[in-house]
Design brief:
The complex is a heterodimer of chains A (350) and B (294). With 350 residues, chain A is mostly helical. Chain A contains 17 helices and 2 strands. The C terminus of chain B is likely disordered. The chains are: A mainly alpha (350), B mainly alpha (294).
Chain lengths: 350, 294
């Protein structure tokens, strides 16, 4: 077997390749064209949310493990690298992987304990685990800074993963997102991807076909946690402030999931599409109505989420891939006809 | 020392009665319609704000306002059931989970936009009044809330056992298809059940308003407690919700005293996880019932 034939299943289609190359080109060129610090911050934010949502997507989208506790993994990454840096002077580049290791361990614990739980009950258990972690961190004041959180002293150097020029942060985030995208592509086309999809559609049938669902679940949530933790470290070293009320909150977990769901779960590009649409929207709403109508952007998020899961439960990517099916669904919901035509995709995630 | 223990037990039970009332709405909606309502705590929050607004606007005591809030919340529940819950019946799981998560976000932020993030307190003649029996102090609002909660639980229990609608609800809970074949209006029952559950949440909100300040995210904690209670007691079980509520109230009060107030939440989350892992059907649920909703 030659290398080409081994890699063949992972080779993207020409359309996919062109699309990815165009995206990379735009992302690489963008900071060079518009290099003022506000634009860079904005680009960073889009990339960051895309990364967090893409990490969630592996457990939530591909394996059907609808976690509402991803803030825990994210927080372990952020707190892990930051505490090691502040207490022991360890470079965040190394701390990042220690934090990720902690997140994988936590995810394996959650996964092993919740194997029997399905859908909503897994979501509830993931909230409970995340809350236990949040309460523990808030109460371990001497080490974690308690409810006030941790503020990183700004000391720019490559080893400290802190930079005076925001362009650095944007490129690091971009690299991380590309790596996750690549992992997702390979995952989707490998036997693991098919095993995860089979488990998501019907756990018992997948087991009957020989899918080791225990391993599939643990693998998906572990990988998802690892990538979320890395996103956490990158966040901490850019924002330089981590508070339990933001990075460990349920609201944060919901926002991550929401971006992936609106963009399209179980597709590599869905989370990116979600972030590209949602982040500018929230920035606009926050800038336009700051002060007078605080909370408006979350209100819009919530309304969008309701409409999306009712009208297009597979996200915007499904509308791009199969516009006719999406249009039929739209007519089904808004057309008022009581007899809804069968939609092929409706069985997914059911 | 023994007086403290008695005081703790009594306070825990009273608090647990309120938790039971929140949870009964949640367990009814779950049991009959298989809907996991993640916005249930936010319904309590809406009830608290409604009580606050009507109380400060009309000057009526919050316990009189309660008689307006509860039917209003029933109508609100009917509307939400028609607009949001009906389309997600039988929809993919992601819709079933995230539609009510989105609803919660909307409710929290609508109230944030209207009232801001400040804590608001509702006036009542009973607020701050304490009944003393020997060494034991019983805050009047807590006592009233407990009494009302127990009465409502009893009424709902009898309603389910004796009335036609109640029997129809139980039939739908057992088997939707067979119920519809027996010419039970399943969609109507879904609508009514959601209204009833929402009314229970709103009533709890009205009872809580004189005791606790209200703020837009107060419901997040309440919905988690309610789910803990419902899972502990057994999904869809009224008796389970009552006993689960009382148990969680006791656990919260006792662990708050003996371990430390910041550990109270930790205690019931650990109980929750233990129940999910050891007996996911809950204490009074039938085995396997945790899979029904999936």
């Amino acid at each position: 077997m030659t290398l080409t034939s081994l890699l063949a299943p992972y080779w993207p289609t020409r359309k996919g390749l062109l699309l990815s190359l165009a995206m990379v080109a735009v992302l690489v060129a963008l900071p060079l064209i518009a290099a003022d610090s506000y634009t860079l911050h904005f680009v960073w934010k889009v990339l960051f949310w895309a990364l967090a949502a893409a990490a969630w997507n592996i457990a939530g989208g591909y394996a059907g493990q609808f976690s509402l506790g991803h803030a825990a993994f994210f927080g372990l990454g952020a707190y892990g690298s930051t505490l090691l840096y502040m207490h022991f002077g360890l470079s965040p580049w190394i701390g990042m992987f220690v934090g990720a290791g902690a997140a994988v361990a936590f995810a394996t614990l959650i996964g092993a304990l919740t194997l029997r739980l399905q859908g909503p009950f897994f979501a509830l258990a993931s909230i409970a685990f995340a809350e236990v972690l949040r309460i523990a961190i808030v109460n371990w004041r001497s080490f974690t800074g308690g409810a006030e959180g941790l503020s990183l002293p700004f000391d720019p150097s490559f080893a400290n993963m802190m930079f005076s020029d925001r362009l650095w942060y944007v490129y690091i985030m971009m690299a991380a997102l590309l790596i996750v995208l690549l992992i997702t592509y390979v995952l989707e086309r490998s036997w693991i991807g098919y095993a995860l999809a089979a488990m998501r559609e019907n756990e018992e049938a997948a087991e009957a076909l020989g899918v080791d669902t225990v391993r599939a679940k643990l693998f998906s949530i572990g990988l998802s946690a690892l990538l979320s933790a890395i996103a956490g470290t990158l966040y901490a070293n850019y924002i330089l402030l981590i508070e339990p009320s933001t990075v460990l909150s349920i609201g944060f977990s919901v926002e991550i999931a929401l971006i992936a769901i609106i963009g399209g779960m179980g597709t590599p590009l869905g989370p990116i599409l979600g972030a590209v649409l949602i982040v500018p929207l929230s920035e606009y709403l926050r800038a336009e109505f700051a002060g007078s109508l605080q909370g408006l952007y979350l209100l819009v998020y919530g309304a969008l989420l309701i409409v999306m899961v009712i009208v297009m439960p597979l996200g915007l990517m499904s509308a791009i891939r199969e516009p006719r099916t999406a249009a039929r669904r739209l007519r089904g919901v808004f057309g008022g006809s009581s007899r809804r035509r069968p939609v092929r995709e409706e069985s997914r995630h059911a | 020392m023994s007086a403290i223990i008695v005081q703790l037990l009594v306070s825990g039970l009273l608090l647990g009665g309120i938790y039971a009332l929140i949870s009964i709405g949640l367990t009814l909606i779950f049991g009959v319609s298989r809907i996991k309502n993640f916005a249930h705590g936010d319904f309590v929050m809406v009830g608290m704000y409604l009580t606050y607004v009507l109380n400060s606007w009309s000057g009526l005591d919050s316990y009189l306002v309660l008689l307006i809030v509860t039917p209003l919340m029933f109508l609100f529940g009917l509307f939400l059931s028609w607009a949001i819950i009906r389309p997600i019946q039988g929809a993919p799981q992601v819709a079933q989970i995230f539609a009510t998560v989105g609803l919660g976000l909307v409710l929290q932020n609508v109230t944030l936009m209207i009232f801001g993030g400040d804590f608001r307190t509702t006036a009542s003649v009973f607020a701050g009044k304490v009944l003393r029996i020997g060494d034991i102090a019983l805050p009047a609002p807590l006592l009233i809330a407990f009494a009302v909660a127990m009465a409502v639980v009893a009424v709902i229990y009898l309603f389910l056992k004796t009335s036609y609608t109640g029997k129809a609800m139980r039939a739908v809970a057992q088997d939707r298809r067979s119920a519809s074949l027996m010419s039970i209006d399943v969609k109507g029952i879904d609508l009514f059940t959601f209204g009833l559950g929402t009314a229970c949440a709103g009533l709890t909100g009205a009872l809580l308003a004189p005791m606790f300040p209200v703020y837009p995210t107060v419901g997040i904690n309440l919905v988690l407690i309610a789910f803990v209670v419902v899972v502990l007691g057994g999904l869809g079980s009224i008796a389970g919700a009552l006993i689960g509520g009382l148990a969680i109230g006791l656990i919260e009060t006792l662990s708050g005293f003996f371990i430390g107030s910041e550990m109270r939440q930790m205690a019931y989350f650990l109980v929750f996880l233990a129940v999910l892992l050891l007996r996911p059907a809950g204490l009074f649920g039938q085995r396997g019932s945790e899979k029904l909703g999936a």
